[in-house]
Amino acid sequence: MAEDKHIEITEKCLDESIDAFFKSAPPLQDLDNITKKLENFVAQHSVHSESQNTKKVVCVTSGGTTVPLERRCVRYIDNFSSGHRGASSTEYFLKAGYMVIFLHRRGTAQPFCRFLPENPILECFEPSDDSGIQVCSPYAEAVKSAIQEHKSAVNSGYFLQLDFTTLFEYLQILQVITLAINRLGAYGMFYLAAAVSDFYVPWDSMTEHKIQSGPGGLAMQLAPVPKMLTLLRKRWAPVAFCVSFKLETDIDILLKKAESARRKYGVHAVVANELSTRKEKVIVVTDQSQTVIEKKGVGMDVEEPLIDFLIKEHAAYTFHQSHFVAKT
Ligand code: PMT
């Protein structure tokens, strides 16, 4: 009884902080365009013959959110993420036949482009003798395969890219995506690799113009961002298979934090990673096990065995949902 009351109060507080967050968020500039893209994506796959259990769809989030400090933003707080995890994971999901909605931070790593140099236009191309442009020979293969694989993923209708910069954009777009995935009628997956801010400046208390420097330094009060994992699991996409991430720099607390996040937010798996070894090794924490996943060799991606593992977990979840839960 006391526990029920506690849950009720916690949920009320969460509702209030979520309401406050969304009420204060600036309206999404590109909402019509994003909605249209998602509607097309859903429509394309609704006519396919796959049933609810065989349609495989995942939303991959990637890159870090920014928190603006001024409305006409000159300064912002950023969350670290190169976007490599999300980009490479997207490639492996596509290879496995998943439809992928790739929600990524503008300017971070893109699927199929991971092997191009940092400044591809300037480094991969050169003027040719006939005053045209040609690919520099060391990059010919990488450029060709990036373009071919990207085009083929987009043309197949299995790959949709959406982007964000701020925390406000990220959370609003994520919500619109959950509506689209629900409409697809599949037990979709959310693979939340984006690094999301924990603190923000509410829009209604944010100064309009650039903060002026002064002799006294700058003191700011940041509000906590409501943990959206709870909202996603309970309200936005209650039947989806939800994978969240836990990033720490101290390996000694990583697993404890991951397990506690799994229990607290009710996600199906937490991918625990330590900053300096994140490209070599991750540990997937589920209610059944803690599984260490390592890359298979030099030049290989840890995301390959990771996605393989998660796809099996997702399939088992979908089977269970459709055979046991849906019938009860
Ligand atoms: O991009 P790379 O350079 O390849 O690096 C990959 C990565 C290290 C960024 C990635 O593997 C990773 O760990 N991403 C999650 C980083 C993060 O924000 O961790 P966190 O412990 O702060 O958050 C944990 C989870 O809570 C995340 O899944 C996040 O989506 C979610 N969250 C966070 C804040 C918030 N207000 N609401 C949330 O739901």
TrEMBL record:
Concerning InterPro entries, the annotation shows: CoaB-like_sf (IPR035929), DNA/pantothenate-metab_flavo_C (IPR007085)
UniProt record, GO biological process: coenzyme A biosynthetic process
Highest taxon listed in the record's lineage: Eukaryota
Matching Gene3D superfamilies, A to Z? CoaB-like (3.40.50.10300)
Q: DNA/pantothenate metabolism flavoprotein C-terminal domain: from which residue to which, for each copy? A: 184-297
A Pfam cross-reference name: DFP
What SUPFAM superfamilies does its record include?
CoaB-like (SSF102645)
What molecular functions are annotated in GO for this chain? catalytic activity
Q: Which family does it belong to?
A: Belongs to the PPC synthetase family.
Question: What is the protein name given in its UniProt record?
Answer: DNA/pantothenate metabolism flavoprotein C-terminal domain-containing protein
- Native organism is Picea sitchensis (Sitka spruce)
